[in-house]
Write a structure and sequence with these properties.
two-stranded antiparallel sheet; Rossmann fold; single chain; 2 domains; 236 residues; alpha/beta
Length: 236
């Protein structure tokens, strides 16, 4: 049991930061390297396809970000595994090269929430090396008391899906709010009975956010929401 009773859980990509510049080019480079590794014809990387896959669990992302018809069926499993290795290496290098940024207002929003007495937790569908590099590059450990990627949670048998990640992070708290940009973020919060905030500025579409309690257009709007129970009571 922890002392603080209020927790806000944030998704990472599309919620706190825009990693598209780092991710799309890096994934495309990793994809080319994977075709070369298997000595396959190299199609033109589909940046739109890669962009649409962003925010999905990493196990799904690396099966979705390329055209499976371009790889012989008997090679697809090894191809996906190698693609993840090559892509992750390129993504981490891109992040360390400064090719990602927090959304405007993110730092002041996190500081204000912390100062109001909320503990903050961070989760991600991304692979663990990518996730830890994001935390390091953007110094996110100064705000977040708990962090967990889905890959790490599955490997350590802490959770099997994003709902389980939310449940694990929320242990010991009476009030939980989940902030994210994709439907699985909202569904994970609702499964716990938490309040949810959908981010229109992220990678999801409007339809994905329809079940959220609130929807925002930029991070600072979080500060206008009655996230705590007493704030909701005060507003009637």
């Amino acid at each position: 049991m922890v002392d603080a009773k209020r927790l806000v859980i944030f998704d990472t990509d599309g919620t706190l930061m825009d990693g598209r510049l780092a991710v799309i080019d890096a994934v495309a480079a990793g994809l080319v390297a994977t075709y070369e590794h298997f000595q396959l014809p190299i199609p033109e990387p589909d940046s739109e396809r890669i962009g649409l896959a962003m925010g999905l669990p990493s196990s799904t992302f690396f099966r979705t970000a390329f055209d499976p018809a371009s790889v012989p069926e008997d090679l697809r499993g090894p191809f996906v595994a190698e693609f993840e290795v090559q892509s992750t290496r390129a993504e981490v290098a891109a992040l360390r090269g400064g090719n990602s940024q927090l959304y405007a207002g993110t730092e002041e929003t996190l500081t204000a929430l912390r100062d109001r007495g909320h503990d903050l937790a961070l989760m991600s569908n991304a692979g663990e090396p990518y996730f830890q590099t994001v935390i390091e590059v953007h110094h996110l450990d100064q705000w977040f008391c708990r962090t967990l990627s889905l890959e790490y949670a599955v490997r350590r048998r802490l959770a099997r899906h994003k709902s389980g990640v939310v449940r694990y992070l929320a242990q010991g708290y009476d009030e939980v709010v989940v902030v994210g940009d994709r439907i699985h973020d909202i569904d994970a919060g609702r499964a716990l009975g938490a309040r949810t905030v959908g981010c229109r500025y992220g990678f999801g579409c409007q339809e994905e956010l329809e079940q959220a309690d609130w929807v925002i257009d930029e991070p600072r709007q979080l500060l206008d929401l009655p996230l705590a129970r007493e704030e909701r009571s005060a507003r009637g």
